[in-house]
Input
Amino acid sequence: MRTWGPLTAVCLGTFMLLLDVTIVVVALPDMARSLHASSSDLQWVVDGYALALAALLLGFGAAADILGRRRVHAAGLVVFATASLLCGLAGGPGALVAARAVQGVGAAAMLATTLPLLGSVYQGRRRSVALGVWGAVSGGAAAVGPVLGGVLTEGPGWRWIFFVNLPVSVAAVWLTLRVVPESREPRGVGVPPRERSRAWGRIDWAGTVAFAGFAGGVTYAVVRAGEDGWGATPTLVSFALAALALVCFVLVERRVAHPLLDLALLRKPAFVGVMAGGLAFNGVAFGGMPYLSIWLQTVLGMSPVRGGLTLLPLTGAAVVVSVLAGKLLHGVPARLTVGGGLLLIGTGCFCQAVLGAASGWTTLVPGLVLVGVGTGLVAPGLAGAALAAVPAERAGMAGGAVNTVRQLGYALGVAVSGTVLTSRMRDTLPHDAAHTLAGGGAGALRAAFSEHALRAAFASGLDSAFVTAGFAGTAAGALVLLLVGAGRAERGGVTESAARALSEEETASSG
Output
C-alpha cells in the first residue's frame, strides 16, 4: 500500500474527472427528454463542467503549492462527490448545469494537484512507471466514457452516470488521506498554519476571476449567437464583456507578483504555437461529439449503448496510436507529432462531412479513425512541447497553461459546433424546430415534418460543423508546424531541463 497506494488514490480521482468530460455525451438525449432541456441547456451541461475546470485550474495549482497539495486534492474530491450527487438529483436543466459547474470546481482542484503529488511521492524509475500508469488511466477514461455512459443510461438511467462517482470518491478520499503524504512548493514549506491566510493572499485570485470572466463570456456569446444570431445585442454585449475581462486579465498578470501566466512566455513563438494547438485540439476533435450522439440516438434510433459503441473507432485508434507513438516515435520533433496530428484531425473532420439524409453511422468510420490517430499523436506530445518551449523554471506554469487551454478549447468547440449546427438547420427548418431537433427532440417533430426532412436537416448541420472543425484543425496544425521549432531542444518532446522540472512536481500547477 505504501508503494502503490498514492498512485491508486490519484488515478481514481483522475479517472473520475476525465470520465465525466465524455460520459455525459451519450446521456444527453435522455437528459433532454427527462428534464425538458433545450439545445442550449445541453450545451451548458457539457460546457459548465469544462469551463469551471479551465477557469480554475491555474488558480488551484497556485493555491495548492502554498496550502498543501494533498489538502486541496482531498477537498476537490469532496466537492466533486457532492456535486455529483446534486447532478443525479437535479430536477431541471438549470439545477443540472449549476451542479455540473460545481463538479468542474472540484475537478480543477483534483487535476491541478495530480501530477505534483505523484512527483513528490515517486522517484527515479518508479516515477516513470507511475506517470506511465497515470497516462494510461487518463486515456482509458476518455475511451470508456461513452460506452459506460451508454450502459448506465440504458440500464438504471442517466442519473447513475453521476451516482456512480460517489463510492469511487469515498474510496479516493480515504486513500488520499491515508497514504498520500502532504507536499508544497518551496515557498509554501515551513509556513505556519497561522501564516497561511497571508500566503493565501499571495495567490493571483484577481487573475483567476478575470480569466474565468473571459472564458465564460466568450463561450456564452457563441451560445447566444446560435440562439439569437451573431449580430444580436446579447451576443455583442457578451463578446464585449469577454474582451473587457481579457484586458483585465492582461493588466493583472503584468502587475501581480506571482502571475498565473507569465506574459513574457507569449513572446516565444514556440509557446504560442503550442498554446494555439492545445486550444484547437480538444475543440476540433471532440466538440461535435455531443451532437453526433444526439443524431445517432434521436434521428437514427440507436440505443445509448450502441450510440456509445459507435465512437470506439475514434477512442480505440487514439489509445493504440498513443501507446505505439510512445515506443516508436521517441526523438521525433514535437512539431511533427503535434502539428501532423492536428492536420490528421482536421482531415478526419472533413472526411466526416459527407452525411446525407440516407447516411448511417458507418459513413463516419474513416473520419473517426483519422481523428483518433491524430489524437493519439497530439495528446502525448502537447505537454512535452509546452515544456520544451519555456525555461525549466516555468515548466509547471507551461503544463498548467496547456491543460487550461485544452479545456477551454473543448468548451468553445461544443459551443461553436452547436451554433453552426443550428444555423445550418435553420436553412430548411423554422427556428424553433431547428433548436428542438438539435436538442434531441426529433420525436416531437415527426408529426409536423417528414423523416427525410429531419434527417436531411440534421445531416447538413453536422456537415457544416465538421467542415468548420476541419478548417480549425488544419489551421492549428499549420500554425504549430510554422511556430514550433524543430531544434535539438525539442527532441523527444521535452528538453532535459524541462523534464527535470516536470520530475520536480510542477507539471499541473501554476508555477
